[in-house]
Amino acid sequence: MVSARDVPSGKLISALAEQMKSVPSVQMPDWARFVKTGSHAERPPASPDWWFTRAASLLRKVYLHGPVGLSDLERAYGGSKALHYFPKHHRDAGGSSIRLILKQLEQAELVSKTPQGRVLTSKGRATLDKISNGLLLELSKEKKGLERYA
């Protein structure tokens, strides 16, 4: 069985982001075009579809590391910020967009909330495994050595 660990993360996230666009409960709010992703960022994301890419990335991260909490995800999506002439320091990502995406994924029944943190539901796991399997089939056509894994 192919899992999300077996395929390249960039290809998995881009394929999953395309599927997230068709999920009715995952919609980018109006304010998301103007907001930065955290205090470490200088500008809002340049991609107009960054909301769906972040949703796909969050879904993959919950799959790999779940159960995870909001503070774990804020730390993971944060970055470093230069403070004038002082050394750089880590800044957590903004929690509002992460929290709203997680709520949307809960409405889509891909993620569920437990006392330990957010975990993937069976529907979410099946979605990720299905996309991973399709990606591995495509990659096995390009690279003949991967045929035995597909």
Notes on the protein architecture:
Strand 3 and strand 4 (117-120) form a beta hairpin. The protein has five helices and four strands; from the N terminus they run αααββαββα. It has a single domain (4-78, 90-149), classed as Winged helix-like DNA-binding domain superfamily/Winged helix DNA-binding domain (Arc Repressor Mutant, subunit A, Orthogonal Bundle), CATH 1.10.10. The longest helix has 21 residues, at 122-142. It is α+β, with helices and mostly antiparallel strands. The chain has helices at 9-20, 50-65, 70-77, 95-107, 122-142; strands at residues 79-83, 86-91, 111-114, 117-120.
Offer a few descriptive terms.
alpha+beta, single chain, globular, Arc Repressor Mutant, subunit A, two-stranded antiparallel sheet, 150 residues, two-stranded antiparallel ribbon, 47% helix
Low-pLDDT segments: none
User: What is the CA–CA distance across the termini?
Assistant: 9 Å
Mean pLDDT level: 86
- What is the count of distinct domains? 1
**Total number of strands:** 4
Overall geometric form: globular
At the fold tier of CATH, the topology name is: Arc Repressor Mutant, subunit A
* Largest sheet: spatial strand order: 1-2
In which range does the helix fraction lie? Answer: 40-55%
What top-tier CATH class fits best?
Answer: Mainly Alpha
User: What kind of assembly state do the chains in view correspond to?
Assistant: single chain
Order of helices and strands: HHHEEHEEH
Q: Classify the secondary structure makeup into a structural class.
A: alpha+beta
User: Total helix count?
Assistant: 5
The rounded Rg comes to: 17 Å
Please indicate the percent range of residues in DSSP E strands (runs of 2 or more): 5-15%
What CATH architecture label applies? Orthogonal Bundle
Main beta sheet strand tally, sense and closure: 2 strands, antiparallel
CATH superfamily: Winged helix-like DNA-binding domain superfamily/Winged helix DNA-binding domain
